[in-house]
Amino acid sequence: MLQEFAFELRVEVAAIEEMGQTAKGIRRVIPITGGTFEGPAIQGHIVAGGYDWQIGRSDGVTEVEARYLLRTHDGSLITIINQGLRHGPPEVMQRLAKGELVDPSDYYFRSIPVFETADPRYDWLTRSVFIATGIRQPSQVLIRVYRLL
Q1: In terms of CB atoms within 10 Å, which of 5, 89, 143, 144 comes out highest?
Q2: pLDDT digits 0-9 by tens, 80-114
Q3: Its family (predicted)?
Q4: Which of 84, 78, 2 is nearest to 37 (CA)?
Q5: 43 alpha-carbon distance from chain centroid
Q6: Cut 0.85: pTM above it
């Protein structure tokens, strides 16, 4: 499968708000407070106000669904819904939960971002399938987005 690098997001996040055990698992909500993104054909900032909704499953996998808004350097708005999975050995996941820096090769963090925009200059985002890799850092998440060719 061929892919090309599209852009990298540096998503700034606030402290985790843990709701506790629900019927689906342990629910966590992480406010998105800003950030930036940049790639060969796009750049801009992340608008504060989005959220990353997570469910910690009983098998140790975290289901991630982040929804937020991108504003390009030229003023266009793009929504992103990014769904994925994160998991690893329990001791690694505990270190991540404590806010420690963890080598990204020690855990799995992949997602499928979907975009929406009214600006035809960026409709290439709505005409392809994308995959992404994630790295969780203490106050931000780095997401590298690739377009499948």
Answers
A1: 143
A2: 999 999 999 999 999 988 888 999 999 999 999 99
A3: Belongs to the UPF0311 family.
A4: 78
A5: 16
A6: yes
